[in-house]
Design a protein that fits this description.
The chain is built from one helix and eight strands. The chain has a single domain, classed as Beta Barrel (Porin), CATH 2.40.160.
Length: about 170
């Protein structure tokens, strides 16, 4: 009985941890839609997708996280897989509103005859804290690293993130 009580107290203390405190982990989900413009030998076309993803972050020091994410673009052809390694800093404000700034590396691979590619980018936005998590709204700018002309291979898009801390 004593071991169970100690285990419950330890679990409760983990649940009460500050969302962006050193040693805290968070798990987030991604959902949405997007489109990709493909060029072929005789024509170009646009393919529309649904996007589902998951990401996990660990705060190595207060307000600074590193993580790993995976996104699946499906219901289009070819299917797209993306693996991302982000680093994010949340500005301590003493309120439930926290601006954030981050950078990431991403590897994108396809189920089909499309060349895989590497990209990197940055993100900024505002996180709003709630009990056991946060919701973030921001902007992402991504640059394809292995392109001949970066001006043709850059994209910007809005992001909405929901994270649950433990």
């Amino acid at each position: 009985m004593k071991k169970i009580a100690i285990a419950l107290l330890l679990m409760a203390s983990l649940l009460q941890a500050d969302t962006f405190e050193s040693g805290t982990a968070s798990l987030g989900i991604t959902g949405g839609s997007g489109s990709v413009s493909y060029s072929g030998t005789n024509f170009g076309y646009i393919e529309n997708y649904y996007i589902l993803g998951v990401n996990a972050d660990y705060f190595i020091v207060d307000n600074l996280s590193v993580g790993f994410g995976y996104r699946l673009w499906f219901n289009g052809s070819p299917t797209i897989h993306q693996a991302t390694v982000p680093v994010t800093y949340y500005v301590p404000t003493g309120s439930k509103f926290r601006p954030y700034l981050g950078a990431f590396y991403r590897y994108t691979y396809f189920d089909g005859n499309v060349d895989d590619y590497n990209s990197a980018g940055g993100r900024l936005g505002l996180a709003i804290l709630f009990d056991q998590g946060y919701m973030g709204f921001g902007w992402v700018q991504e640059y394809r690293l292995d392109a001949n002309n970066l001006s043709d291979d850059t994209s910007g898009y809005p992001e909405v993130t929901i994270g649950f801390s433990f």
